[in-house]
Amino acid sequence: MKEGKKELKGKLDWSCLPMEALRGTVRVFEKGAIKYNGTRTWLPGIMFSKLFAATMRHLFDWYFFAY
Hints:
The structure is a single chain. The chain is 54% helix and 0% strand. The chain is mainly alpha-helical. The chain has one domain. The longest helix has 19 residues, at 48-66. It is elongated, with a radius of gyration of 16 Å. It starts with 18 loop residues before the first helix and ends with a helix.
């Protein structure tokens, strides 16, 4: 089967990021969000951080269980 083409020149390779280390960073930021009553509370409308958080949880689960 022939592999499809994907141009990667000049793009970040997110697969190099150690996901477990990033998890720890998220935990630190969560503590700050709790301390200051939420993240990005100064923005009006829908809190896109909630959508981003859900997306990242799904991507992490997919990435770790896909291999």
